[in-house]
Amino acid sequence: MHTLLRLRALMYWFDLLDVFNNVSAVISRRRRRRSGCWRWIYQGSVLGPLLFNVFVSDLPDALNKCTLVQYADDATIYKKISCQEDADEFQEELNNVDIWCANNGMELNSRKCKVMDISRARLPLHFEYTLGDAPLEYVDSQRLLGVHIARDLRWRVHTDIVRAKAAQRLSFAARNLRGCTPRVKRIAYLTMVKPVMTFGLPAWHPTTQENINKLSRVQNRAMHFAFGKILPEPRLQNVMPFNMHLRHTDLVFFQRCQSGQTDFDARARIIQGRALRGDNTAHPRLQPPPARTAFGRSAFSYRVCKPWNDLPPSLKDCDASKFPSLCEQFLWCNF
């Protein structure tokens, strides 16, 4: 009942907005004109994303055989394709999306819609898909929420992109902060450069030592920019080495999953290992899932087990808000 009353009040407020049908539109820097516009929502307004989410809230109902993932105005449809029948079902779902858009007064730009087969097979299945009358383009990697996902689920492409972007920002900072103090240069690196390289961790991971070295070289260059040719000890730099930062990010994310702050079951593939002499019974040892390849051993559920087992029980039991700082202190002591 309360929800219905709120909905009616919201619709009444939207009706009041229609009264103001004359919207000022800036057509040049020197003059304005009055133009008739109905149900206008300014781009960048606070109300715009809410109304768009309400508008597309019934899009998942149009799909029955595929999974739809939405975030704002981005939508991703995926399905396991193992034969021609699966491909036909996927094409049918694309047609349903096209019909839904036509019924709701929307038109999809087929040039911005891409298809990517996620497979590590040497000869993956390849089927043609269309949206309307336009064929969809196949890509080997696609940017999704700021992370570039490759078709083989390796992170070389994303690592190269963020390394180049971080190096560009570091060069900009070096040109404009040449005469500043080391403290200012260090803060510039931590606020402008490092977030580019670490965005999305641990959803993605450099995985290989080659990719880790690429990102570490950018950080080493930044430290030379801040402190000069002779670098102080890593602890005096007050910047975690990149390997340590990766481990710290994994542990903090795992602890948030353990405490319920993040809606993700991080222990879905992790089992309780055999107790060893001296183990704390309140914190049983974690055993990683079986992995036969280096690719499997780089997964989050595998690589986080050993660092978590090495943490002292007092650190595992601490408050969630204090865990990041205490974990950093522990990693520095064992660096």
Structural commentary:
With 335 residues, the chain is of the alpha+beta class. 46% of the residues lie in helices and 12% in strands. The protein contains 13 helices and twelve strands. The strands form six sheets. It has a two-stranded antiparallel sheet. A two-stranded antiparallel ribbon has the order 3-4. α5 (182-198) packs antiparallel against α6. It is globular, with a radius of gyration of 26 Å. Mean pLDDT is 84; it is low at 1-38. Pfam families: RVT_1 (PF00078). This is Reverse transcriptase domain-containing protein.
Secondary-structure blueprint:
Blueprint: H1 2-17, E1 22-26, E2 32-36, H2 47-55, E3 67-71, E4 74-78, H3 84-103, E5 114-115, E6 130-131, E7 134-135, E8 137-138, E9 141-144, E10 147-150, H4 156-176, H5 182-198, H6 209-227, H7 234-237, H8 242-259, E11 271-272, E12 286-287, H9 294-297, H10 300-303, H11 305-310, H12 313-316, H13 323-333
Parallel strand pairs: 5-8
Antiparallel strand pairs: 1-2, 3-4, 6-7, 9-10, 11-12
Helix pairs in contact: 4-5, 4-6, 5-6, 8-13
Name the assembly state.
single chain
The number of strands is 12
Distance between the amino and carboxyl termini: 59 Å
Main pleated-sheet profile? 2 strands, antiparallel
Main sheet strand line-up = 1-2
Written as H for each helix and E for each strand, in order along the chain, the element string is HEEHEEHEEEEEEHHHHHEEHHHHH
Pfam family, one: RVT_1
GO biological process, one term: DNA biosynthetic process
Protein name: Reverse transcriptase domain-containing protein
